[in-house]
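Per-record layout

source: Mycolicibacterium wolinskyi
name: DUF4440 domain-containing protein
length: 127
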Amino acid sequence: MVGARDPLFDELLDLERAGWDSLCKATGAEFYGELMLPDAVMVLANGMVMDRDTVVGALSASPPWRTYAISDARLIAVDDDNAVLVYTGTGYREGDEPAFVGAMSSVYHRADGRWKLALYQQTRMPD
């Protein structure tokens, strides 16, 4: 496991933040359409497993997040071209909806010199 101040940790955490930023700006469909590998999937807290095309369609129709927070991030470096970022993510939407808090993991694979998302998984944290 790799801790903070590691260049790979910083790079992937920046990429994860860029994804959340896109969700707040309602540009998540474009961002994740580019970031995800063609056969990548997202496993959501409600049990849905979505392929890249389904993710892009869902994000196109989803309201943006108001803001977010990432905490307790850590990196598992598998090898030079594969790594997992694990963290607690908190997302806030407009209105009275309570924050979504989940344990999140993103599996990245480096392809042609660029990090791509192979798998994203979230588990809702108990209140």
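summary: The helical segments are 7-24, 28-35, 52-61. The chain has one domain: 7-124.
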